Amino acid sequence: MSRRRLSVALAATTAVLALTTTAAITPPSTASARTADQPGGGIGQLRITPEQVRAEIRKDEVAALGQDAAESLAKDRIALRDVGAYPDPIRAQRLQSLTDSQAQINAGFPDASRYGRFTDYFTSPDFGDHVALLPTGKVLLFSFERIDTNPQHEPAPTQTIGKENAGRAYLWDPSAGTGASAFKAVPPPIVNPNDGENEPRPAPLFCAGHAYLPNGMVSVFGGNFGSNGGAGTRYTMVFDPWAEQWLQQGDMSVGRWYPSAVTTANGTQLVMSGQTELGWGTPTPIVEQFPNSPLAVPYGKTYTGGNPVSKWQNTTAPYRMDYPHLFALNDGKVYGFGRDADQQYKFDPVLQTRTSLPNRPDGGMRMYGAAVALPNGTAGPNSALILGGDRNDKNTYKFSAATGTWAKDTPRAFGRTQDDTLILPNGNLFTVNGSYGIRDYGFGDYNPNGDFKYRQTEMRDSSGTWTLGPAERLPRGYHSNAVLLPDGRIMVTGDELQQLASNPNISDPNANGTIEMYEPPYLSQGPRPVLSTAPTNAVGYGLPFSVGSPTAGAVTKAVLVAPVTSTHSVDTSQRYIELPIVGRTSSSLTLTAPLNPAAAPPGYYMLFLLNAQGVPSVAKFVQIAGL
């Protein structure tokens, strides 16, 4: 595919993204340290001399960007020219090698009832850089049309303007199996960005932020404008899971590339951060809200396009870095945990105010890494745990909204970035994916070879103890995702570089990406409770409701788990709430809904029933709303 109309920052996003990380990350001490981190270094292990840089540097880039940035772009051009083609036979060999090493290592974790197990591995038409579990049980995956199949190059059109900067999206129906027929193309709306090219194309929604509306639809904010090292679009899109179509909404007031969005207790969504249309180095402090007021929040299964976005008038979110973690905790406030240690804030969605929080105790800046709002019984979460984002720090950090303080929490086995952590139906935490850096798996930028440890999973039990578990097949770092499905399995996908590097069917449009399935230990711990019926109409806050269960006598706990919509290790929607069991017959249970929207913002949740061993039923979706 042609690469015409690249911006002046035509090199891969390596140099740009490095600007977001190197200030706080020290070089590794092992022999695998990257020469790109050393004077005169470039991509991977290539040595670049000052003479080469002087010959390559461009006067127009010096004038527009400055000497340092122009030299960085010159080095990247030299490095990318040096990278040759990626031979197709190596893709098959790599996949076989990864398959063999996974089997060998996982033989050391034979007890699935203790460690869980990886099962299916199959192809997908989409990379899965962005994911969302829908209340229909299907999974929305979206990303971009690749501009390269060589994993030693940047495959995303981040720097591209024109029709090649296009998005794509698919639905996967787990109930339909793992073949091509289980996927359905649902391309984004056709747009014509104001990039001077006049070339309509499916909206480039990758690099966006997203969250759920109370009616189960997914709002997507921003995307990739192209050029300038990462520039944002103003688009607001809503995906309707009931009609399986996109609805274009009113534009935001500013472009956003790598923003975060969160659903609040009143059902509106707040959007923060992201680079503007001007590109890298212009993060917007503007806070925007969708829909424009609580009165406009949709609860029914029908919705229209063209609904407006509004700005907060007197309060900003001055994040220096993109994709902050945003959580709506049970006091009704939104807690924004920035990647910089000194950028931690509390926002009041009603008063539209911002308050500073204490600095995160690790200091410095974290790369993309996991964070979760921790389970807190029936009251809804009142704390958050920051886990990933620093390969040199295995500690985790807990912020308590009740006390307004940070505390160091139990460490994982090692530090990792680009990781994903899920709350399981039994309340345990599960970490999967991770890497050394953004495009570095341990042996240099754009080198698909990976340090094995990042492929291992890790589980945190109710005591806070972390235990290493089996390994996934591919190393999955940057742009990886994990989703808890209603049947209790974990879907793992994402990281287009690894998918391209291990794809023996590179020319098959139905095999761009891959999905791997993990079965947590509870799926090997005996019979599961059965949830036969659940309300099909919305359940009001604090009200009792009945569910059918032929195994009601064995049920000891009922929980709501919010579905996952994530990208770049950021999931603002994930939530875990216990429901009191207030009545029981031989075939039914009476449960009490969460007390208020602060405990559980309005929307769709997976309802699981659990027995005394912590084994969950297959979930059913229930809508919680204050109607």
Which descriptors would you attach to this protein?
627 residues, mainly beta, four-stranded antiparallel beta sheet, 38 strands, 10% helix, disordered N terminus
Can you walk me through this structure?
With 627 residues, this protein is mostly beta strands. The strands form ten sheets. It has a five-stranded antiparallel beta sheet, with no helix packed on it. Strand 10 (236-240) and strand 11 form a beta hairpin. The radius of gyration is 23 Å and the shape is globular. The N and C termini lie far apart (51 Å).
In the predicted model, the low-confidence regions spanning at least 5 consecutive residues are: 1-45
Give the C-alpha Rg: 23 Å
How do the strands of the widest beta sheet line up side by side?
A: 5-4-3-2-33
**Distance from first to last alpha carbon:** 51 Å
Number of strands: 38
Number of helices in the DSSP assignment: 7
Structural class: mainly beta
Tell me the overall shape: globular
Strand content: 25-35%
Question: Helicity range of the residues?
Answer: 10-25%
**Overall average residue pLDDT:** 91
Largest sheet, described in full?
5 strands, antiparallel
Note the topology.
Layout: H1 14-19, H2 50-56, H3 59-65, H4 67-82, H5 88-106, H6 112-115, E1 117-124, E2 130-133, E3 139-144, E4 167-172, E5 183-185, E6 190-191, E7 201-202, E8 209-212, E9 218-221, E10 236-240, E11 245-248, E12 260-263, E13 269-272, E14 286-290, E15 310-316, E16 325-328, E17 334-337, E18 344-348, E19 353-356, E20 371-373, E21 383-386, E22 396-400, E23 405-409, E24 420-423, E25 429-432, E26 456-460, E27 466-471, E28 480-484, E29 490-494, H7 496-501, E30 513-519, E31 544-548, E32 555-561, E33 565-566, E34 576-579, E35 581-584, E36 588-592, E37 603-611, E38 620-624
Antiparallel strand pairs: 1-30, 2-3, 2-33, 3-4, 4-5, 6-7, 8-9, 9-10, 10-11, 12-13, 13-14, 14-15, 16-17, 17-18, 18-19, 20-21, 21-22, 22-23, 24-25, 25-26, 26-27, 28-29, 29-30, 31-36, 32-34, 32-37, 35-36, 37-38
Helix pairs in contact: 2-4, 3-4
